[in-house]
Glutamate [NMDA] receptor-associated protein 1 (Hirundo rustica rustica), 293 residues
Amino acid sequence: MSHEKSFLVTSDGFGGQQPAPPGPPAYPQPPYPVAPYPQPQFAPAPYPQPGFAPGPGPYPAAGPYPPDFPSAHWDDKSVRQAFIRKVFLVLTLQLTVTFAFVTVFTFVKGVRGFVQRNVWTYYVSYAVFFVSLIVLSCCGDFRRKHPWNLVSLSILTVSLSYMVGMIASFYDTEAVIMAVGITVVVCFTVVIFSLQTKYDFTSCRGVLIICLVVLILFSILCIFIRNRIVDIVYASLGALLFTCFLAVDTQLILGNKQLALSPEEYIFAALNLYTDIINIFLYILAIIGRAKE
C-alpha cells in the first residue's frame, strides 16, 4: 500500500491547499487457510440418533422375533429343523396314547363291554374334545403359552383317544388291526412323498376346505340314507380328503412352500397332523367294517 500523503482541497480562506490528516497504518494481513479446514482434535465422533440405525438405508424391517431368538430368523434352517423335531415328538406321544386306548378297548373284554354299555361317556368325551379343540384352534396366545398349551393338548388327546377306542370297540378285532396297518402305511407314504416332492400342496388348501364342507353335507345325507354302498363311498372320500390334508399340513411344517407355519406354532402343527391321521384311521376302519358285513 502506498505511503504517500493524500491531500484534500479545503477552503482555508486563502485558496491554498491543506494536507489531509494521516490515515491508520496498514498492517500485514494473516494468510487465510485453504480448504479443507483441519478439524479440532477434541471434536466428538458423531453419535447415532436414538431409534435410528446409523448409516444410509435401507434397513431390515423388524420381524416378530421373540426375546429367546434375538438374532435368529424364522427361515433359518436350524430353527426350522428344531421345530420339525418338536412337532413329530409331540405327535408320536399323541399317537402312542391313542393306539394304547384302541388296544385296550379292543382286546380287553371287560373294558370293551363297559364302554359299549355306557355310550353316554362317548358324548362327554366328545364335548371335552370339542371345547379343547376350539380353544387351541382359535386362541393363538393361549396355545403358545407354556405349559397351558401342553395341558390343553393332553386333555384333547385323552378325550379323542377315548372316542377312537370306543368306536374301535364296536368293530371286529381283525378290522381294527387291518385299519391300523393301512393307516400306518398310508400316512408314512404321504409324509415321505410330501417331504420329497417339489409340488406345492399348500396352494390347494382352499380347495380342500371347500371339499371338506361338501363332505360334511354328504355325511348329513348319509344319516337319512342308510345304505352300505353310500357309507363306503362316503368313507372313501373322507379318507382321500384327509390324506390330502395330511400332505398339506406336512408341507406347512417344512416351511419351504408358498405357505408355512411359524416355529412358535408347534402345538398347532402337531394338532393338525394328529387329527388328520385319526380321521384317516376312522374312515379306513369304516370302509373295512362295512366291507366285512
About this structure: Residues 77-107 form the longest helix (31 residues). Strands lie at 7-8, 18-19. Residues 77-292 form one domain. The chain is about 60% helix and 0% strand.
